[in-house]
Amino acid sequence: MTQAQAQTQAPLIDPFARSIDYLRVSVTDRCDFRCVYCMSETMNFLPKAELLSLEELDRLSSAFISLGVKKLRITGGEPLVRKGIMTYFEAMSRHLASGALRELTLTTNGSQLAKYAQDLADCGVKRINVSLDTLDDAKFKAITRWGRFSQVMEGVEAAVTAGLSIKINAVALKGTNDSEIHDMVAWCGTRGFDLTFIEVMPMGDMGEENRLDQYWPLSDVRAELARRWTLTDIALNTGGPARYVQVAETGGRIGFITPLTHNFCESCNRVRLTCTGQLYMCLGQEDDADLRAVLRANPDNAPLYAAIRNAIARKPKGHDFDYSRQKVAGEMSRHMSHTGG
Ligand code: SAM
User: Fold this and answer.
1) DSSP 119-172
2) In the structure, which protein residues have their CB atom closer than 6 angstroms to any atom of ligand 1?
């Protein structure tokens, strides 16, 4: 075997013997919503030159797939507002067709699904996560500021029609959707959607919002759910930060994501790539690798493979997040792109 072949053929294994086969790719920092817990209403987004082009995203994602990544989750910002994004999905579908990639999926706010659900299904996407915190039109407006509930519902219907499986991700917000969680369980149960509650993280530039007012521990969410539903723990470990229960009455599943706890670090199989080509090896740690610089400096992929391997060799055993640190706007997307988001 030549050195070049060895570089592509050996799978990515980190220092703790974890096989890294899951890459989350943020394709944009932009979003058409301004969710109060995530972004301020006035955002400064990155200049285009900072972003990886669609061709660069293809090259970088394909490099990871050559190194054994089997699952790609596309996120953002809002991935479906990236201009020309279907070109990228089409490019990734070739890896599904070859068998190199097992799953291509995305996390979306649903606003563009009416337009793209069928195209996504045609590219081989089978499951998507739709972020939806409420079923109430007025609350939806209050949370997303710029979103339209009916547009998201049309998107969800289009996704169902296209045959996509849907998981709803809802951030648990005290004083906002706390009165609705039973309705959401019932709705998801009826529609055959899985549902995951995400604990709100005290991060991002939330402008005038008071983050402490919104915080609702998932232990309390679960206790409230247990008053009406029969919940049984299930041993579903996706390597991510969620714990799951089965709802006897609906047959559906509910996940609970406490983004910054240490759940399952020992089986963590994922790394995250930002839209500027920085690779983050762990949710709670700041260490990153600048893959864009390597990509742009080298038309040949060998240095890129080496840079990816070097980065994986620095993946820490677990994370140790300090809640007291304040993050700047834009950080949220980076962090949430690791979780259900
Ligand atoms: N735009 C896409 C979407 O809406 O799913 C992908 C990016 S969005 C940042 C990913 C997820 O992060 C969404 O489910 C969103 O609700 C969640 N999120 C954003 N800010 C959060 C926060 N402060 N705490 C918890 N979840 C948050």
Assistant:
1) HHHHTT--EEEEE---S-HHHHHHHHSS--HHHHHHHHHHHHHTT-EEEEEEEE
2) 31, 35, 37-38, 75-76, 78, 107-109, 131, 169, 171, 198, 200-201, 203-204, 332-333, 336, 341
The residue whose two tokens read 């980190």 is 14
Are residues 96 and 329 in contact, defined by beta-carbon separation less than 8 angstroms? no
Q: What is the dihedral of CA 274, 288, 38, 71, to 10 degrees?
A: 50
What pTM, to 2 d.p., does this model score? 0.92
- Using the structure block, give the residue that is written with the tokens 């809640």: 323
Take residue 158 and report the two structure tokens written for it: 């289009």
From 16, 19, 10, 11, select the one nearest 239 (Cα to Cα): 19
CA gap 187, 253 in Å, rounded: 12
DSSP 8-state secondary structure symbol assigned to residue 179 = G
Q: Is the pLDDT of residue 193 over 50?
A: yes
DSSP three-state, residue 6 = helix
Residue 220 burial (10 A CB sphere; 0-12, 13-18, 19+): middle
CB 89 within 8 A of CB 120: yes
Pocket test for ligand 1, best of 131, 215, 273 (most atoms within 8 A of CB): 131
Q: Per-residue pLDDT tens for 114-141?
A: 999 999 999 999 999 999 999 999 999 9
Residue 73 φ then ψ, to 5°: -115, 125
| AA letter at 124 | G
Q: Which residues contact 154 (CB under 8 A, 6 or more apart)?
A: 113, 114
